[in-house]
Each structure stands twice: as structure tokens, then as C-alpha cells.
Amino acid sequence: WTLFGFSLTFSEYGGPFIGDCSYCGATNLGLHCIPPTTMNSISFFIYQGMFATITSALMFGSSAERVRIMPAMIFMFVWTTVVYDPIAYWTWAKNGWLNKLGSLDYAGGTPVHIASGFAGLAKALVLGKRLDYDRNTEWKPHSLSNVFLGTAILWFGWFGFNGGRRRMLKHFLTKWRLQAYIIIPVIVDSIAHCNLITCIAASTGGLTWVLFDYRNARKLSALGFCSGAVAALVAITPGSGFVAPWSAIVVGFVAGIACNMGEQGKETKIKQH
């Protein structure tokens, strides 16, 4: 990120597909702002570095216990450079082609979640199943307490993930005011609003998953609540600064049901084969 990642992703004078070397080696950073943000470039550099880090880490949930640390580190470096940097540039940079088309991605639906999700799927397909995998064994988390604690920490961190993007909102209001007020229910320049939307969606997703599990299996599960909450957090991220509270309920509800059905479908297919 320091050597060239930030520059390729957020330089102001790149083409429609990738940035230039204006900020390579973290040079030319200071208190000035990098369009389209209103955040000083040093803070923006650190904040976006966390985005790049978590994106490359997300995909490894699909390949746990199947990769060694050194190949994983090399893969993360290459993948971030070749995949994440260009997609983030398209979406958020001043001259990115998606940004110029009017794409509204508040906190990373395309560069973070879609990119890492498909990368994780590709890794799982290439690496294959665990050597000790048994289709007839019901796999459960070894510590539900750790799952719940991890979800709570993740949920809290998401407030910084979504709420921290508020400084991007001024750009969207200025450039896409007409589309915003016609297509999108509400835009509020407030960190509190973003975090409210995030919390409503996550709560709805968790409750939806739990109730859907109860409908199918007549049991309530803390693991189900955690799964639904995380699914809804992912779903609300691109629109957390653009939608009204009632919209967050809809997003959380749909995410909870869709991901629950997907998980059940996966389990059914595994048992059939």
C-alpha cells in the first residue's frame, strides 16, 4: 500500500482504469485533500489502507487450514495489486470509469465484498476440500462464545467502516444531487445516520435468520443471529450513507433470508453428494 498501492488506487491524474505514481512511496501526502474526498491525504491514506488490508483478508475464510502462510502473503500482495487496486480506483477515484458513470458505492460493496467474495470462491474451488473433510459430519464452531464475541467486535468495527466514509458524502451530494433525491430515499451528511442504518440492518438480519431457522427447525440459535447480522452488515455497506431507516430494515430482511436459504441449499447439496 505504501510503495504503490495507494497511488494506483487514488491518484488524481490517472486514466479511467488505473492511477499513476503520484503518491508512490507515500510521497506528496499532507494536509491537502485528495478529490473527491474532504479528508486530509494522510488520514485518508491510513483509512483506505485498512480497507485494502481487510479486503485481502476476507477471502481467506474460504481456504482456512488449506494454505501455508508464505504463499498466502505472496498471494495477498499480488491480488491486492492486480484486483483490488484497479476495482477500488474505478469505484472511488476522481477519474475512475465507474465513478464517472455515477456509481454510488458508499463503503465498498464492489471493491471490498464482491471482489473478495468471488476471490474466496475461486480459492476454494482451486484448493479443494480439507483432507479430513467428512460429508456425514455436522460441522459446528468449536466455541460459540468466540463466534459471538467476534461478531460483536466486527459489528462495532463496522461503525468505523461505514461511518468513517462520511467525508465522501459531500462529493456525492455535490455531483449527484439530482439522482440522489430522485432515486435514493434520503442522504444525510452524518456519521450518526450511517451508523444508525448499519445497526438497524444488522439487527434485522440477525433476527430474520433466527426466525427463519425456527420456522424450519423449531430451534433458536445464537450462531444463526451472528450469521444473519454479518450477512446484513455486508449487504447494507454500499448504501449505508444513502438509504432511509426503513430501507435498512428491508435490506437486512432480504439479506437474512437470502443467505439463510443459500446456506441451507449448500448443506442439502453436500449431503446429496
UniProtKB/TrEMBL annotation:
Where the record annotates domain Ammonium transporter AmtB-like, the positions are 1-267
**Transmembrane segment boundaries:** 42-60, 72-92, 112-131, 143-161, 181-212, 219-237, 243-262
The UniProt entry's sequence similarity note says: Belongs to the ammonia transporter channel (TC 1.A.11.2) family.
Under Gene Ontology molecular function, one entry of this record is:
ammonium channel activity
Membrane topology value: Multi-pass membrane protein
Keywords from UniProt, A to Z, are: Ammonia transport, Membrane, Transmembrane, Transmembrane helix, Transport
Question: What is this protein called in UniProt?
Answer: Ammonium transporter AmtB-like domain-containing protein
As for subcellular location, the record says: Membrane
The record's GO CC annotations read:
plasma membrane
